[in-house]
Amino acid sequence: MTTPVDREKSSEERKGFTLVEMMVVVAIIGILAGIAFVSMMHYRMVIRVNATARDLAGQMRIARASAVKEGKSVLVNFNQYLGTQNYQVGLDSAEDGTFDGFFHTYYLQPGIRFGYFPTISAVPSHEYPVTHPVEIKAGAGLYINKFHFRQDGTASYNGVAYLIPSNDLSATGNRDDRCRAVDWEATTGRIRVWKWKFDDHTWR
Asked: Domains of the chain by range and CATH?
């Protein structure tokens, strides 16, 4: 027959967790933390590539407005070689590719570069397949890295700049949903920001 003393002792013996139970709980917490970390890194890159695209489009709109206001051409020069990932904006009244003294250099967000995922389609009205991170075509087979906004608000060439997190271009990167693009029209000077939609493989 179990006495009250025996039941109290049995209850005390059952208090707490076994080592196996503790290990299971720690393992679950570790898995959840890992998932949360990966998700956080993904959205951090999304925020950065979105911000880079907005910044580029914003600076280009300012450059166009400056050309109209000052009555002088404004040069936009992209640097995307030898690890350099920035663009420069300044007056170039002679349109000879040389700044009239002052210019400003804008850097891409950390971890973002001019680039594109190999399987994406081109932004509408631009060439496919995509072959250049910054596509400014100055003639048949001739691609350059600069263009001008002119006094009337037009641009010297059509163009598009593709943006992507560096990780998506690595050997282990297989994402195309974080591609962004900024393009402009020569005849109107219109500037647009595009987002690649991986679900239906289109730019919007």
From this structure: 19-203 (3.55.40.10)
